[in-house]
Amino acid sequence: MEKRVQFRSSWLPWVLIAPQMAVICVFFFWPAAQAILQSLQEQDAFGSSTEWVGLDNFQRLFSDATYLESFKTTALFSVLVAGLGIVLSLLLAVFADRVVRGVTFYRTLLILPYAVAPAVAGVLWVFMFSPALGVVAYALGKFGYDWNHLLNGGQAMALIVLAAVWKQISYNFLFFVAALQSIPKSLIEAAAIDGAGPWRRFWGIQLPLISPTTFFLLVMNVVYAFFETFGIVDAATNGGPGKDTSILVYRVYYDGFKAMDLGGSAAQSAVLMLIVIVLTVVQFRYVEKKVNY
Amino acid sequence: MLDRRPALTLLSHLVMILGVIIVAFPLYLAFIASTHRPEEIVQLPMPLTPGNYFWQTWHAALFGNATGAGSHAPVLRMMWISLVSALIISLGKIAISLLSAFAIVYFRFPFKKLVFWMIFITLMLPVEVRILPTYQVLSDLNMLNSYAGLSVPLIASATATFLFRQFFMTVPDELVEAARMDGAGPMRFFFDVLLPLSRTAMAALFVIQFIYGWNQYLWPLLATTNEDMYTVVIGIKRMIAGGDSQNEWNVVMATALLAMLPPAIVVISMQKWFVRGLVDTEK
User: Fold this and answer.
1) Where are the domains of chain A?
2) Signal sequence span per UniProt (chain B) (predicted)?
3) Which of A266, A246, A234, A25 is nearest to B132 (CA)?
4) Smallest CA–CA separation between B244 and chain A, in Å?
5) Of B55, B34, B58, B56, whose CA–CA distance to B46 is shortest?
6) May I ask the CATH architecture of the domain A58-288?
7) What is the interface pTM, i.e. ipTM, of the complex?
């Protein structure tokens, strides 16, 4: 994995990596070390006194029913976002692959949500589903279904899932379109000559061949659901009603900045770090296998 | 396609049209809302065709003379803040990553493995998981409410470094040999050979990082306390501070569309590179 031919200099490489090193030391290693340190300490809200408490914060965290609840909330949310996002975008990509005329038009419109910030997506969907003035809430009411995500936890969850999926579809769609296009045409033609219909070709050839992309997207979507959806939750539901839509990232923010529980928030950060590291290792092992230097 | 099945082609178009309608509906509704007076929007059901209050709404949003319950800072100012920080994030990340990837791939130096792993480990942790301590560092350094505070902490992840590293690995060794034979030093090789070759990768990264920077929410929420330094994504959230009827939803929706305009322009105009960047590198 090394270049055969290399330059020699005792000082130049250090100059070259200095900017990156400076930035990651100040804004990555320092705060990360702080987070681990703080997770082992108890600090009062004004930061005037600090004492070592060992693993107390973690113990407190895992005996807190609402924290365990937000684990469940996050799991449900991620499964729904990743599952729906992947299935819907795969459906769109498969049909986009068949369309010849107008494909640029469709594609341009379908990738637009990629440009929308999660928080803005949250605002857009709240506007549509607002119990007082939302068009969709009104239409649902006409059909006899009462929509009020401010009171109903399940509906609040549905709202953030919809907004998150809407925003992520374009990303998944692009990958699926590219993956489908990279399947050799000869394979599909051969199958067609053998009499396999479109349905059969999809299950027998296309789906297995794009499974690496699907797996990659699965990991990316879970990471997205874990972290990048903070804006959606904050803009759409504020974690409510109650704590029904408080996903883990929202809790870290809420406990640290609103409830001023520094030790608890730091302990949550540490737990989150562990989750991300596991996810990354899974992803990296897969990516490394696929990349040929 | 190989088999001509008119019914299937028709179905494909139907699915596409349905998908486009669902995807575009929230945006359409936002546009419609921005063309009406606030009183008209709170009526049930709100009108689904354009009204004639378009100029007033967009003017109020851009220059900040709205009168709703939440914040009404001028959106033009916010967009400027967003633009500057998104540019610092994307260009800064590309610049420092090019340099460090060059050092890692083309030089042999002591502690190289350690440096490599220090950079690699930053891939794993988004700013969201170390949010509170990063905030403390920022306030210790007196960088709250500044462009640097909005952007530099977000540069501290190595995605771009790894992308460039992977790309440099595929550059043939013969090019270095030829450059050396011609008497070119490392920096000459970097500027004259490596940079021109990396143009596509840089363009793709720019799109991804610009949008990443523009769309940031949690970080600017903490790093800015002053209305003067709100980014447009933060501004829009602050606008809906009031209840449903107190908000000027027409201005909020105009702001939402303004907030997505620059990234949308970047995505659409650089669609080709963006797709290639995504697919080639799987980022």
Assistant:
1) 58-288
2) none
3) A266
4) 7
5) B34
6) Orthogonal Bundle (1.10)
7) 0.87
| CA-based nearest residue to A99, from B21, B19, B20, B8 | B8
B15-48 pLDDT, tens per residue? 999 999 999 999 999 999 999 988 888 887 888 8
Task: Say if residues B145 and B219 touch (Cβ distance below 8 Å).
Answer: no
Radius of gyration for the alpha carbons in chain B, expressed in angstroms and rounded = 24
Nearest of B189, B261, B239, B229 to residue B77 by alpha carbon: B229
What are the DSSP calls for A146-175, one per residue? ---TTT-HHHHHHHHHHHHHHHHHHHHHHH
pTM of the model: 0.88
Residues from chain B that touch A114, judged by Cβ atoms under 8 A, are 211, 267
What does each C-alpha distance from A231 to A30, A120, A284, B208 come to in angstroms?
Answer: 25, 8, 27, 18
pLDDT at A62 over 70: yes
Q: Report phi then psi at A43, rounded to 5.
A: -125, 145
Residue pair A235/A122 in contact by the 8 Å Cβ criterion: yes
Task: Say if the Cβ atoms of A8 and B107 lie within 8 Å.
Answer: yes
Which stretch of DSSP H or E encloses residue B4?
A: none
In single-letter form, the type of residue at position A101 comes to R
Give me the domain span that covers residue B128. Answer: 75-279
**CATH code (residue B191):** 1.10.3720.10
Over its C-alpha atoms, chain A yields an Rg (Å, rounded) of: 24
How many CA atoms are closer than 13 Å to the CA of A166, on its beta-carbon side?
A: 26
B98 in contact with A, Cβ within 8 Å: no
